[in-house]
Amino acid sequence: MKIGFAIASTLLDKHDLLFQIIKRVSGKYGHTVIDLNNSEKETLDYIDVAILGGTALNKGKIDYFLTGCSSGLGMQIACNAIPNVICGYGTSSIEANLFSRINKGNAFSYPFALNWGWASEKKYENVLESLFKGFTQLPYPERDTTRKLSATEKLKRLKSISQLSFDEFTEKYN
Q1: How many separate domains does the chain show?
Q2: N or C: which end of the chain has fewer CB within 10 A?
Q3: CATH of the domain at 20
Q4: pLDDT digits (tens, 9 = 90+) for 141-153
């Protein structure tokens, strides 16, 4: 799987650390990580980053998008406004695992400033481990797999009929 990563300019001091964590954890699962942040480190806010990740997903450059902002919530909201992007949010291993197992989204947002402190990079690493592991697991609880997968497809259908197509979005947004 090709995993894209980008964050807003306000968090660039954490960029290299986070990118290395993502590469280390995703490598265990055979994934490739693509840094979507411009090498010139242009000024990007969380909305710009959501559009950047959403564009990469919609154009097939990546299969999954990892991102975040100070609280993680604004980024999740912005990502979910982009056609064909289903972005989860979580601060714990169990939230990340359940999102990947049940909701089957294609983006995940994390808070990189809120409560960030001692050993936070280890906590993020654990969250990523659980997220990636969840890709290979049946929905939880497994006895409800059929119902959960049906609800996931229903969510994707709801999103597809309630939003513009990506081409229409790009035309209107630019």
Answers
A1: 1
A2: C
A3: 3.40.1400.10
A4: 899 999 999 999 9
Top-confidence residue, 42 or 138:
138
Q: Are 21 and 125 in contact (CB under 8 A)?
A: yes
Provide the pairing of β-strand 64-69 with 32-35: unpaired
Q: Is the pLDDT of residue 115 over 90?
A: no
For residues 105 and 128, give the distance between their C-alpha atoms in angstroms, rounded to a whole number. Answer: 14
CA distances from 33 to 4, 99, 157 (A): 6, 20, 28
Host domain of residue 164: 2-173
Number of residues assigned to the chain: 174
Rounded to two decimals, the pTM is 0.94
Q: Is the peptide bond before 83 cis (omega within 30 degrees of 0)?
A: no
